[in-house]
Amino acid sequence: MHTDLVAALDIGGTKIAGALVDGHGRIQARTQRATPARQDGETVMQAVEQVLGDLAASPLWGRASVLGIGSAGPVDTSAGTVSPVNVPGWRGFPLVERVRAATGGLPVELIGDGVAITAAEHWQGAARGHDNALCMVVSTGVGGGLVLGGRLHPGPTGNAGHIGHISVDLDGEPCPCGARGCVEGLASGPNIARRALADGWLPGPDGDTSAAAVADAARRGDPVAVASFERAAQALAAGIAATATLVEIDIAVIGGGVGKAGDVLFAPLRKALADYATLSFVQRLTVVPAQMGTDAGLVGAAAAALALRPDTTAAGV
Ligand SMILES: [Zn+2]
User: Fold this and answer.
1) Distance 84 CA to ligand 1 centre (A)
2) Number of domains in the chain
3) What is the CA(175)–ligand 1 centre distance, in A?
4) How far is the CA of 234 from the centre of ligand 1 (A)?
5) pLDDT grade, residue 310 (50/70/90)?
6) 279 CA to middle of ligand 1, Å?
7) Is residue 53 scored above 70 in pLDDT?
8) Ligand 1 centroid vs 238 CA: distance in angstroms?
9) Which SUPFAM superfamilies match (predicted)?
10) What is the pTM of this model?
11) Are 218 and 186 contained in the same domain?
12) How far does the centroid of ligand 1 lie from the alpha carbon of residue 31, in Å?
């Protein structure tokens, strides 16, 4: 029997996706369940087991020899546990052990969702071929991960690169994480929308107050909407420049819903980056949109699992 596939789980606050992925990052089978996020931990685990059951029913299942999990965080990969902010029933939940048991003992690799997306972009997306990269997800929150020296750098607990919670405004607003002036508080979608509304932006007749609606308004030249995106871009640029200065990344990849805003975000971002990334060794830094779509979490989890296999050739992940 060939064992040329890897199983992957992408666990978030709204859905639990599962897939069988080949050595080129292509999804050969997939399934998905809603996350019963407000229910107790065992009920959430049952949904995971249903996803695993769907995968195990595939005729391809026997070709999978390892399983990767990308989970909403925080995660603790050293302990094999997860405590997703949006899944209160799971606090220090022993996900690795439970998934291993549910699959009859497959080797399991756990990474956080920001690290998973980084693995996917490095393997098959915008960071391909870059040995030193920061990949970010800018949506409801702001997460990220690092590739250093050609390898994924999850850190001891799997949370390295969590750029959303570095402070870029020393006396800024308190952040739910306990710090102040975090990148997330200035650059996440809800915060872009919140700031625009507070500064007098009026939504259209449809009443849409999402960051995407602010982006539409900015595209039409609404000065308040433009200013809110410029402020978000400034925060992202400061975080990216700090990262580049610390570890010499040469590319920053931005995905997530806000990352889809296009020039409304990227034009002021590149301008602000020139203001903050000033030393000679960071001036070559480029910032680009993510290339991986909604499957990035699954593909990244697969990349992490592939790295477990002794015969792996997955792009140095
Ligand atoms: Zn924070």
Assistant:
1) 15
2) 2
3) 5
4) 16
5) low
6) 27
7) yes
8) 15
9) Actin-like ATPase domain
10) 0.92
11) yes
12) 33
State whether 110 and 134 are in the same domain: no
Q: Could you tell me the distance, in angstroms and rounded to a whole number, from the CA of residue 169 to the centre of ligand 1?
A: 11
Supply angle C-alpha 114, 302, 156, rounded to 5: 50
How many Å apart are CA 115 and CA 235, to the nearest integer? 21
Identity of residue 306: L
> How large is the angle between the packed helices 211-219 and 263-276, nearest 10 degrees?
90
In a domain, 122, yes or no: no
Spatial separation of the C-alpha atoms in residues 297 and 294, rounded to whole Å = 7
Dihedrals φ, ψ of 31, to 5°?
A: -155, 165
Spacing, Cα 30 to ligand 1 middle (Å): 34
Beta bridge partners of 253: 135, 288
**Phi and psi torsions of 191, nearest 5°:** -75, -30
Are residues 247 and 143 located together in one domain of the fold?
A: yes
CA 166 to centroid of ligand 1, rounded, Å = 7
The CATH number covering residue 181 comes to 3.30.420.40
Residue 189 Cα, ligand 1 centroid: separation in angstroms? 15
Burial of 204 (0-12, 13-18, 19+ CB in 10 A): exposed
Distance 182 CA to ligand 1 centre (A): 5
Q: Measure 21 CA to ligand 1 centroid, in angstroms.
A: 34
Q: pLDDT confidence of 297, banded at 50, 70, 90?
A: very high
Domain match, 20 and 62 both: yes
Q: How far, in Å, CA of 138 to CA of 187, rounded?
A: 7
In which domain, by residue range, is 33 found? 5-116+295-306
Predicted pLDDT of residue 283? 87
How far, in Å, is the centroid of ligand 1 from the Cα of 130?
A: 28
For the stretch 218-258, pLDDT in tens is 999 999 999 999 999 999 999 999 999 999 999 999 999 99
For 169-210, the pLDDT digits (tens) are 999 999 988 999 999 999 999 999 999 999 999 999 999 999
Q: How far is the CA of 250 from the centre of ligand 1 (A)?
A: 25
How many A from CA of 222 to the centre of ligand 1?
Answer: 29
